[in-house]
Specification:
One of its GO terms (cellular component) is cytosol. This protein is α/β, with parallel strands linked by helices and 195 residues long. A seven-stranded mixed β-sheet has the order 1-4-7-12-15-17-18. Helix 2 runs antiparallel to helix 3. The protein is globular.
Length: 195
């Protein structure tokens, strides 16, 4: 079993592991190249995204600057858009569905730490995967905490801090984020913006 297999099965992230350290270095090098590649060089950017992410189809757009830790644990669906300054800490897997919009400054975290202060001294991290369903819109500055699942077609308002799962077809806002209403798939195509 590889060190990554252990981490993704719920074990601790061993930052001293050669496999994990090499993946972090590889990911950061690809990330630096991606962020340095002009937007007009879309073929080069798509190639870099294909190398950086676990899965990223050519129909996605990742705006720069973009920040992640490894990249390998990020899986993105078709026609998904990352606006400027999205941050993803991918100690665990992040699955982002098709046709998802991530507004500027969205933060997605899978890394978490022990409640034991002595264990934290070693910088030990654990993962709780994050899943965002198809057709979601995550508003500017929203924070998605470790272990959260956001159901398909949901909207997370700007600045929300999502600490618990959000069901499908929901509008959630606030800190901590709360569902304030259910969305009807038959609603007009251009409702009042939440950003």
């Amino acid at each position: 079993m590889s060190d990554w297999d252990k981490v993704l099965a719920g074990g601790p992230l061993n930052s001293q592991s050669k496999e994990i350290a090499d993946d972090r270095i590889r990911g950061q090098a690809l990330l630096a190249r991606l962020n340095a590649t002009p937007a007009g060089e879309s073929d080069a950017r798509q190639r870099l995204c294909g190398e950086l992410f676990g899965h990223c189809p050519p129909s996605c757009w990742i705006s720069s600057p973009f920040i992640c830790e490894f990249g390998r644990n990020i899986h993105v669906g078709e026609q998904t858009f990352f606006n400027f300054n999205v941050t993803i800490l991918d100690v665990g897997e992040v699955h982002i569905g098709k046709h998802v919009l991530l507004a500027p400054n969205v933060q997605i975290y899978t890394a978490t730490h022990s409640m034991d202060h002595l264990e934290r001294r070693n910088w030990t991290a654990y993962n709780k995967p994050v899943r965002i369903g198809d057709d979601c819109w995550i508003g500017g500055g929203a924070i998605i905490c470790p272990g959260v699942t956001i159901g398909p077609r949901s909207i997370i308002g700007a600045g929300a801090v999502v600490t618990r799962d959000i069901p499908a077809d929901s509008l959630a806002v606030g800190n901590p984020a709360k569902v304030i209403r259910k969305l009807n798939p038959g609603e007009p195509r251009h409702p009042k913006a939440t950003q």
